[in-house]
Amino acid sequence: MKKDQARIGFKSNLGAIAALAGSAVGLGNIWKFPYIAGTNGGGAFLLVYIFFILLIGFPVMLAEFTLGRRSQQNAFGTFRFLAPGTKWFLFGALSIIAATLILSFYGTVSGWTLEYVWLSLTNSFEGTNAQEVNAIYTDFISHPYKALLWHIGFMAITAGIIMGGVQKGIERYSKIMMPLLFIIIIALCINSMSLPGSTQGLKFLFFPEFSKLTANGILAALGQAFFSLSLGMGTLLTYASYISKRDNLMNISLKVITTDTLVAVLAGIAILPAVFSFGIDPQAGPGLVFITLPQVFQQLPLGELWAVSFFILLTFAGLTSAISMLEVPVAYLVEEKNMKRTTATGLLATVITIIGGFNTLSFGPLRNVQILGMNIFDACDYLCSNILLPIGGILICVFAGWYLDKAIILHEMSNEGSLKIRFFKVYILILKYIAPACILLIFLNIFGVIK
Ligand code: PHE
To answer: How far is the CA of 28 from the centre of ligand 1 (A)?
Structure first.
């Protein structure tokens, strides 16, 4: 960006919240959360999850907001600006790489959701049995190019929105998609709860079975909190750089974490009672959404409509998260390399789609390519979710809690002293010790150092 050009930020407070909540609410809330909550003790998991969201997610999010809005720059520029003459800019570079890589596999699954919108629209699940639904899924993901085409399509839409810019792209579309997402999910919840035998699903989700909550489950809750809130990846920091100086950061973060948690719980209510009502075993991960749910939908009255709605919901959730990831490297190229937004977006979307192409094809033609015993997709997911994300989280805590002058943080959080900030000392204490220690625990657990 030319230095004399004014930087465009979010137009309204509501727009900022829609965009930030859009980044947080994603595939993580809808296909991942209901299953892990259910298998890790339901209500017990939920309690631990909410505890982590408040104790760690909230302070780390607020730290990212504070840094981004303070600098009014991209992730790379933020660290160079706040820590001049140090190597902290490398952390900015790491965030950019992490966001790019996450998008490369996130785009794969989001591409699948588009195919499922299409399959539902063309009523392809009608009259199929469990095995056939399973076959539709496996044939599709292993097809030599079908998934690739949807992947390219999804990335093109993502790039199209980002090319529109902060206000006319990100803010505008988040303000359209987020309310629609809410309407769809609430309709799905009502429908799911009205089915006979649905209480069993609610019990699976909410009844606190503390005996089922293991140490692994507790760490899964922490990892999920991080992924779900989009922490440690430069996305919140980049979006925060567009928040108006008048907005209350604390307030916005509370709204974002509330929305994110609410959508995760609503997704559980939309999915699990329906699954139980038909006596289907709730399956793990992608299977729950792409194999189990189509079976459920086709047994419902107006099943086609529910299926279309659900997969549109999933697509919106994926899209509002994907744009937040793409914005991280785009903002970097525009501001640091003086590239035009459209050029930067086109270039990055192409590169990410190519990397993502390998992820997409790793279920089909490239399925035999193994990295440390995983296919390309799983290896990429593992690297991002289990390594880059926790590192990003710890570095944010260290930067804001230890390196940066606390007066700067207080100034920014309080809008130069005009807002009263309570519990600031406790906040810093969490950032300095508690949050990094907890993240370190997830890390050590992932590597089997502690079990
Ligand atoms: N929070 C998103 C989800 O739950 C994923 C995400 C991670 C988005 C990191 C942006 C950055 O699906």
So the answer is: 7
Residue 4 lies in a domain: no
Ligand 1 contact, 113 CB (< 6 A): no
Left if phi > 0, otherwise alpha if psi is -120 to 50, otherwise beta: which for 286? alpha
Residue 3 lies inside a defined structural domain of this protein: no
> What's the structural domain count of the chain?
1
- The pLDDT score that the predictor gives to residue 4 is 46
State residue 96's pLDDT score.
95
3 state SS for 163-200: HCHHHHHHHHHHHHHHHHHHHHHHHHHHHHHCCCCCHH
Residue 364 lies in a domain: yes
What's the burial of 99, exposed, middle or buried (CB within 10 Å: 0-12/13-18/19+)?
buried
Identify the domain containing residue 75 by its residue range: 13-446
CA distance linking residue 176 with residue 413, whole number of Å:
29
On whether the CB atoms of residues 113 and 311 are closer than 8 A, the answer is yes
Token pair 């907890």 is found at 438
Q: How confident is the model at residue 285 (pLDDT cuts 50, 70, 90)?
A: low
Mutate which of 104, 230, 233, 237 for ligand 1 pocket (most atoms within 8 A of beta carbon): 230
DSSP state of 371: B
Mean pLDDT of 221-241: 93
State the Cα–Cα distance between residues 361 and 357, nearest whole angstrom. Answer: 6
Q: Which two tokens stand for residue 142?
A: 């292993």
> Residue 437 above 90 pLDDT?
yes
Residue with tokens 């991280």: 328
Q: Is there a domain that residue 1 lies in?
A: no
| Ligand 1 proximity of 98 Cβ (cutoff 6 Å) | no
Q: Among residues of the chain, what percentage have pLDDT more than 90? A: 76
What CATH number does the domain containing 376 carry?
1.20.1740.10
Q: What is the DSSP string of 69-127?
A: HHHTS-HHHHHHHHSTTSTTHHHHHHHHHHHHHHHHHHHHHHHHHHHHHHHHHTTTTTT
Ligand 1 atom with minimal separation from the 389 CA: 9
**Atom 6 in ligand 1: residue holding the nearest Cα:** 230
Q: Confirm or reject: Cβ of 325 under 6 Å from ligand 1.
A: yes
pLDDT in tens, 393-405: 999 999 999 999 9
pTM of the model: 0.95
Contact partners, residue 359, CB within 8 Å, separation at least 6: 104, 105, 107, 108, 376, 377, 380
Least Cα distance to 147 among 102, 103, 116, 121 occurs for 116
Instruction: Give residue 291's pLDDT.
Output: 86
| pLDDT value of residue 83 | 97
Mean pLDDT of the chain: 93
Residue with tokens 């520029």: 77
The atom number, within ligand 1, closest to the CA of 232 reads 9
